[in-house]
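--- STAGE predict ---
source: upstream dedup step, 1 unique chain passed
mode: sequence only
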Amino acid sequence: MNTTMPLSARPRGQTMVLSVVTMLMLALMMLIGFNVAHTAHERIRIQQAADAQAYSVAVLQARAMNVNAVINRTIAALTVAQMSLHAWNTVASHEVDMLQGGFIAFGEVALMEAAQCCITGPCVVHCTDAIEAGVISFKYKSAKDEYEGKLSAKEQDFNNAVRALYDAKKSLYDQEKDFVGQVQAQINNGSILTDMLRKTAPQAQYAGLHATNVNNFLCTLDGPADIGACSGSEPLVFARARHPPSERSKQMQETANAARGLFNTAGGFGGMLGGRPFAKGAPFIISSPDKMMEIQGNEGSYTATYAPTGAFVSRVGDSTYNKDSANDQTAENVGSATGAGGTLVRWRHGVGVWLLGSSVFSSQSGGEHRGAVGDNHPEFKTIAQIPNEATFISFNAHTNPSERNDWGQPNAYGAVTQDLRLLQNGGRGAFEVAKNGSGTINIRIGQEQRKITLVPANTGVAVGKAKAYFHQLGADWTLPPNGFDPFWRAKLHPFKRDELREVLSIAGDPNAYVAGPVEGVR
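--- STAGE serialize ---
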């Protein structure tokens, strides 16, 4: 018996249906894979862009501080050069003053010998001595006039040199302010950051942290008001007030005074007195110098005693020897003084004494030249500092530096947003299920409705943090941050919890304040 089923009664198309369902599931899985991979790739891209922004801003901050430190050192060196010029002029003036002292002292000896002179008897020798002492006195006077003429001829050269050093300091100060302005412009979404974002994440945008970064930079600078206002609040910005020019001036005063103390700094640099080095020590004594003894015919003794002061930057209105400034006084004087002293001449039967002391000062209000030379040409020297300024931009230290405020060192932040569905070259990929951006597929399982989201509908946000920090290699962190040492560096830095929430909020992340632990924070 034939039991074969007719062909028309056989089931058909079951394999095809299963194949279509399988291919649909495979296609769906492939689309999900493409979307997940693309989303992860773009999220990595914008995170790198955010870190790059933060690190680049920190590099700009650190390099700005290093450039300022080098300029400040140069300004301090120019101030020391001004001090050295004043030291040279003071020592040269003191040579003239010593000759003046010999002239007057020997005049006193001549009078003393003349008082003992008589016509006959042993006292006749005093008459001869009086005449000889008078001749020596006028030899001193002749030598004094000769040296004074030579020094007076150099006075204009001295003034020009001090003025040129002032102009150099002013030029550096102007360049420093201009440089700070350029760095500020770059931090505030300048071409450096714009080009970097275009190359790292072309479809992304920076998310509103430029002002915060600018404030972080400006708050760490102590300078004139025209470099920009310092504003902001913790935890993002450690704001602080700027100090008046007098405070910055005191920093330069202390730096310059420490760099060049007395006349003999750097192996006797500063001049000779009576043919001998002007060494430090108080009191300082020159006994029978060759120059004086030659005038005296190598007879008797010539002794100069005084307390050397040196070359220094002094406070406003002080043209003597005080090198300290009060809080409200700008150190605008550059000067040099040998200190008070005297000349003692012993010659045959007489003794002569005369006071010594020379000084040369330059200030905003003019200048002076005290001593034997100054009596003849006390003309204007030149100004030593910039009026109403302190000639440099310094690091603005925090009033209470601690670990909580990172020792007053500036923060730098990065924040980048991007629609994670966009391709690098623009538009959306062929794997997008819904062109309206929803990227959602509805699936019914039994009686329940399920949704599969291929890509997040919201925009991706990435943030980063970096820090410009101060560290002298090999110094074990003992040197505090300052505006004179170029040891500023940059590094990526971890967030603190509240700080991260603030940055995410500024960047526009709706989940900025979701509770949860932050790595590295207890």
